[in-house]
Amino acid sequence: MGKLSPDLSEKAIDILSKNTDSKLITHLNACVHCGLCGTSCLFYKKMQDPKFIPGKKVDLVASIYRRYCTFTGKVAPHLSHARELTDELVEEMVDSLYGACSMCGRCVKHCSIGVDIPFVVRTGRRMLAAMGYVPATLQSTVDAAINTGNNMGIAEDEFVDTIQWMEEDLQDEVGDEKACIPLNQEGRDMLYTVNPREPKFFPLSIAAAAKIFYAAGESWTLSSKMYDVTNYGYFSGNDAEATAIAQRMFDEVHKLGCKTLVLGECGHGSRALRWESPNYLKEKPDFEMITIVELIEQYIKSGRIKLDKTLNKKKYTIHDPCNLVRNGGLYNSLRFVVKEAVPELIEMDPYGSDNFCCGGGGGLLAMSEFNERRLKVGEIKAEQIRATGADVVISPCHNCVDQLTQINHTYKLGVEIKSVAEIVADALVIG
Ligand code: SF4
Ligand code: SF4
User: Fold this and answer.
1) Which of 217, 416, 415 is CA-nearest to residue 302?
2) Which atom of ligand 2 is nearest to the CA of 30?
3) What is the pTM of this model?
4) DSSP secondary structure letter of residue 192
5) Which residue, judged by its Cα, is nearest atom 4 of ligand 2?
6) Atom of ligand 2 nearest to the CA of 38
7) CB contact at 8 A, 67 and 84
8) CA–CA gap between residue 400 and residue 265 (Å, rounded)
């Protein structure tokens, strides 16, 4: 880590001192250091290091605010626990705010006052981004998205090949040689998006979604250039890059003339596009946004697709992605769809909006320097899964699917990990 120059410090402090958002000031001043949030956080619960208590993460940012933006902090910093922005503090911030927070929001529910801890953590990340301290691994993920249109740097012809291969798979599956996965079709109702991990590692989940669209008779398309639902600028804290990534997706919807943007199975991507991008872009979208889970719910309720849950024969549990369930309100839609698609659902303890993060959120999956810690905190999820006795874990987020796959391997759980589209596609009654 390079030496901190006064110019860089000023950029970070400006984020606090030139801030006109009363929400930030309120949340920086609200923590009463009661520590009740401690065991709600998977990092503190697993590592038992006091620096990982959520309130301590808030205090890293709040102590800088007190030092540079309050009278007492300026004249007598020791009286208000105000801290100078030094190399040492920057190092602590990188470790705690990038490497020990998945921005899952569980602590907010357990905080006696309701301090929005992930919001403060992201403010700290914005400060670090302004100084150029985004971990190189996370930054390279953002750079890949900006330079190639998707965060894994998949070449367009490679993506098109995968889609054609999945199209053949779909035709065999439904016994219809006219079944297709449309690419770059203008004027369709829906533009579908995916997490680049799907074409790279889990292409069958794209075929599963295509089978559902086929059964519903949907008017839809994928874009071969702009299919990436993720936005790692949300996690890096660089708002300009988060805005650029969001803007390109809005432009693609307009270019193809679609009425609805369907958010593929990705928690943070859905959140960044649906809830954060209107703020980044300072405009209300002139098209609808809906997650694939809600769309499937509509298909089932309106009779556009029919499911036979007896076609799925195992025992199932759900891992609730933080950004879709706790922070996105998808609890009822997700339970409705899964219960229509499987015969036996066993809930984790806790579950729903109190569920633990899998450990892979907040950009941690992209930051290999924290791999050991990420898998260690993932043991909480492993224990939750093992206790259900389920054979299959369903999760509507491909970041979670990736972390769950690694947890499955590390802790020898012997379960299958599936997306919602895969479970629904397996239960579809075609024709
Ligand atoms: S947002 Fe999640 S990971 Fe971050 S401090 Fe809160 S509970 Fe811990
Ligand atoms: S529970 Fe809330 S008020 Fe108490 S230490 Fe945690 S963040 Fe601060």
Assistant:
1) 217
2) 3
3) 0.96
4) E
5) 34
6) 6
7) yes
8) 10
Could you say which of 1.10.1060, 2.40.10, 1.10.10, 3.15.10 is the CATH number of the domain covering 6-133?
1.10.1060
Q: Which atom of ligand 2 is nearest to the CA of 111?
A: 1
Q: Where are the domains of the chain?
A: 6-133, 149-300, 304-427
> What is the SS3 assignment for 380?
helix
Gyration radius of the chain over CA positions: 22
CB 192 within 8 A of CB 209: yes
Which DSSP category does 40 fall into? G
Nearest-CA residue for atom 3 of ligand 1: 101
Atom of ligand 2 nearest to the CA of 53: 6
Predicted pLDDT at 3: 76
State the CB neighbour count (10 A cutoff) for residue 347.
Answer: 15
The owner of tokens 């898998």 is 375
What's the burial of 51, exposed, middle or buried (CB within 10 Å: 0-12/13-18/19+)?
middle
Residue having the nearest C-alpha atom to atom 7 of ligand 1 = 41
pLDDT grade for 94, boundaries at 50, 70 and 90: very high
Q: What is the mean predicted confidence (pLDDT) over 383-398?
A: 98
What pLDDT, on a 0 to 100 scale, did the predictor assign at position 1? Answer: 61
Q: Which of the listed residues 113, 116, 117 should we mutate to test ligand 2's pocket, taking the one with most ligand atoms within 8 A of CB?
A: 113
Please give the single-letter amino acid code of residue 21: D
Q: Which CATH architecture has domain 304-427?
A: 3-Layer(aba) Sandwich (3.40)
**Fold matches, 149-300 and 304-427:** yes
Neighbours of 282 (CB within 10 A): 7
| Amino acid code (one letter) for 67 | R
CA distance 293 to 218: 15
Give strand pairing partners of 192.
262
Alpha-helical segments (H) within 35-75: 42-47, 54-69, 71-75
pLDDT average, residue stretch 241-265: 98
Q: Which ligand is nearest to the CA of 326?
A: 1
Taking the centre of ligand 1 as the mean of its atom positions, its distance from the CA of residue 107, in whole angstroms, is 6
Q: What is the pLDDT of residue 20?
A: 76
CATH number, span 149-300:
3.40.50
Euclidean distance between CA atoms 326 and 105, whole angstroms? 7
Strand partners, 10: none
Element (H, E) at 245: helix 239-256
- CA geometry: angle 350, 356, 357, nearest 5 deg: 155
For the four alpha carbons of 111, 113, 119 and 124, in that order, the dihedral sign comes to: negative
Residue 45 has pLDDT above 80, yes or no: yes
Query: Rounded CA gap, 343 and 319, in Å?
Result: 17
